[in-house]
């Protein structure tokens, strides 16, 4: 037959009491502490994910600002190149106008000198004609001699030009 051993029952009761004591005094606080720690870690992970998302948004924002700044720099460079080109074109136009004015001035100077030379040549021709007339008057000569003197005068006048 089966006999009940009180020692086994007391051991079993002691184990149950120990179990409930440990459950309420040890396991429940440890479980609460683990839950709090789990919640804290989840909150930190959520905050880290939020920070990562914000950082990505900031990065995109900065990339947009850099792109905008590069576009502005390109525009400034383009404007500067256009102004430099306009200044170059203006300087070239001024130089061309100055060269044309100098050429016109030189042409006028050449024309004046040419007119002066023609005037001098006319004066010399007049002097030669006067000299030839004086010679003709001095020498009353026939028409053949007169023709020779005129040919000689024309040759001298042509040589002067």
How would you explain this protein's 3D organization?
With 161 residues, the protein is an all-alpha fold. It has one domain (11-160). The chain is 94% helix and 0% strand. It has two helices and no strands. The chain has helices at residues 6-138, 143-160. Helix 1 packs antiparallel against helix 2 (143-160). The longest helix has 133 residues, at 6-138. The radius of gyration is 62 Å and the shape is rod-shaped.
The number of helical runs is 2
The pLDDT mean sits at: 86
What is the helix fraction of residues, given as a range?
Answer: over 70%
Q: Count of DSSP E strands?
A: 0
Low-confidence stretches: none
Distance between the termini: 170 Å
Element-level helix/strand string: HH
The helix/strand class is: mainly alpha
Largest sheet: none
Number of domains: 1
Overall 3D shape: rod-shaped
Strand content: under 5%
